[in-house]
Design brief:
The structure holds two protein chains of two kinds. Chain A is 0% helix and 57% strand. Chain A is an all-beta fold. In chain B, strands 2, 4, 5, 6, 9, 10 and 11 form a seven-stranded mixed β-sheet that branches. Chain B has a four-stranded antiparallel β-sheet with strand order 1-3-8-7, with no helix packed on it. The chains are: A mainly beta, B mainly beta. Chains A and B meet through strand 9 and strand 10 of A and strand 4, strand 5, strand 9 and strand 10 of B.
Chain lengths: 110, 117
């Protein structure tokens, strides 16, 4: 059975801290792994990863994929209160179908 | 590119009535669209895969007679929640894909929050 597992399910950090979110997967027909940020509305796209070992960066966020060990991490450095959200990991197949993990609730306190 | 529009963004309906939600691809032709549902404090769960010109494929546990999907054109898919009940209250969201091998087939609509009273 295909599955996408995120950890931790939730965490609370102080502004300025660095957080690392984990996503492991076991799926057939893997094409890509995606990270989204969700704040009380539709998910916002962050990264799409298809190749192992190539880090993608966007400002304070970065992500990398390990296709041998079947996991990905999302890092957020120098966290801000605006980073508070649920971060979703999803695995996509070649047709665009996504299977989501349960999400990680991140709370950044001032 | 790859803009997906979803309408309405929010709807309140009475129990027993039907509600139609539209999902449009604005700048590409979507051979495939996906419908997800998200209950409070839960992740997105795929309900069905909608293919243009053919019947939708429903995930296990999703009633095809209750959630009617129509994908009559390459830019529009509709989800109709028939005889809605309070337990159908949820956040419904679509995504569209132009087909196999697409690199941007993961764009979501803005979602529809359905409340059945």
């Amino acid at each position: 059975e295909d599955k996408v597992v995120q950890s931790p399910l939730s965490l609370v950090v102080h502004e300025g801290d660095t957080v690392t979110l984990n996503c492991s997967y076991e799926v057939t027909n893997f094409r890509s792994l995606l990270w989204y940020k969700q704040e009380k509305k539709a998910p916002t796209f962050l990264f799409m990863l298809t190749s192992s070992g190539i880090e993608k960066k966007s400002g304070r966020l970065s992500s990398i994929l390990d296709k041998k060990e079947l996991f990905s991490i999302l890092n957020i450095t120098a966290t801000q209160t605006g980073d508070s959200a649920v971060y979703l990991c999803a695995v996509g197949d070649s047709w665009g179908k996504l299977q989501f993990g349960a999400g990680t609730q991140v709370v950044v306190t001032p | 590119g790859a803009v997906v529009s979803q309408h309405p963004s929010r709807v309140i309906c009475k129990s027993g009535t039907s509600v139609k939600i539209e999902c449009r691809s604005l700048d590409f032709q979507a051979t495939t669209m996906f419908w997800y549902r998200q209950f409070p404090k839960q992740s997105l769960m795929l309900m069905a895969t909608s293919n243009e010109g053919s019947k939708a494929t429903y995930e296990q546990g999703v009633e095809k007679d209750k959630f009617l999907i129509n994908h009559a054109s390459l830019t529009l898919s509709t989800l109709t929640v028939t005889s809605a009940h309070p337990e159908d209250s949820s956040f419904y969201i679509c995504s569209a894909s132009p087909g196999q091998g697409a690199s941007y087939g993961y764009t979501f609509g803005s979602g529809t929050r359905l409340t059945v009273v």
